Amino acid sequence: MRVLFLSQIVPYPPHGGVLQRGFNILRELGNLADVHLLAFMHPDALPTPDTLAESREVLGRFCRTVEYFPLWVKKSPLHKAAGLGLSLFSRAPFGAIAHRSRAFGERVSAETRASRFDVVHVDTIGLSPFVDLEHPPAATVLTHHNIESMLMGRRSQVQSGRAARAFLAREAVKLEQAERRIPPQFDLNIVMSESDGRALAELAPEARSAVVPNGVDTSYFTPALNRETPALIYGGGMNMFANCDAVMYFLTEVWPAIQAVRPDLRFFAVGQDPPRELLAMSERDPRIVVTGYVKDIREYIAQAAVYVVPLRVGGGTRLKVLDAMAMGKAMVSTSTGCEGINVTPGEHLLISDTPQAFANATLALLDDPARRQSLGQAARALVEHEYAWPVVGRQLIDGYQEAIRVRASKS
């Protein structure tokens, strides 16, 4: 099977979110298909010639060809401001504007003219303009890492600042319009969870979809590494609004109630680009440990007695949650935090959606080692069975085969 894979970002290094999924998906596909990668390059993710060369070498182990393209809004703060300004006067969402590229479009056209692909995989809706959906060159597959309109709508509700909230609410409307119009034109839409599938079906009833969830490397994240101390942890790059909001919500609304009972606890906030206000809180209270980016998050997860997921904004499935589950960690999450993962509350983790309930659940687990162990073991068993990357890779190949059958029936 020959696959042309269009990615909004070079999926390397595989640390969190879309990078982690993209890397592991390509690794699994490389064992099962002939993959050709075209990807947009983010200079903040690959800042030096050495890291860029390393990414080509590593991804080249899985992909027959690897080719990168500049992302114009990442050239400078002025370019980003121009992209945001353009989106104010455009019906297109910011993501589509940000990925405009004549060079990328010409390369996609050249590849599909010169080679006979079985599947063209578009890894985000913002890249859909690069595929001729009226006369598709192969079976077409579109990934929805989140239902973006839902994610943007949720963010608009908690974003500070009236102008920012208005901008995000308008983006949510534009994304919803795109999600109603574009998915039915693809042979198959890949969603991260059953709940995302239902949300997409409400927006675009004619769109054909299949669940191919996020996954976890169960040989890399293992319970054997654990060495618990009186600590809590949340991990996620704080260059993403949802993660930054989660940490600040936890520290302002939940942490004081926990600290009143357990003043010995530490809280690890692990992830790149922590905001200034979080760093200031850490300076005032040494029990709040802000690490910034770390190469290997396992050593921090291993030290924590409980993994907390105080997310209020999100969609899809959370790779960080699956990583912690693979390490057998007891977890307290909001409903949003574990949304899309096939968990049973009380069996695999605890769910609490108010600050006091979240604090109470966390304190209860801290006082009950046997309960922590039971939840952690059940969580590990679940990810081994349903979310290991080889399982996910096979599901994606099954999805490709379905898309090929759909395209053949249309032809």
Helicity, as a percent range: 40-55%
CATH class of the largest domain: Alpha Beta
In the CATH classification, which architecture of the largest domain applies?
3-Layer(aba) Sandwich
Query: Could you tell me the mean pLDDT?
Result: 93
Order of helices and strands: EHEHEHHHEEHHEHEEHEHEHEHEEHHH
Strands of the largest sheet, in order across it? 3-2-1-4-5-6-7
As for the number of domains, it is: 2
DSSP strand content: 5-15%
Low-confidence sequence ranges: none
Question: How many E-type strands?
Answer: 13
Major beta sheet, specifics? 7 strands, parallel
CATH fold group of the largest domain: Rossmann fold
Oligomeric category: single chain
Amino-to-carboxy terminus distance = 19 Å
In DSSP terms (H or I, runs of 4 or more residues), the helix count works out at: 15
Q: At the fourth CATH level, what is the homologous superfamily of the largest domain?
A: Glycogen Phosphorylase B
Radius of gyration, whole Å: 21 Å
Structural class, from secondary structure content? alpha/beta
Given the C-alpha coordinates, what overall shape results?
globular
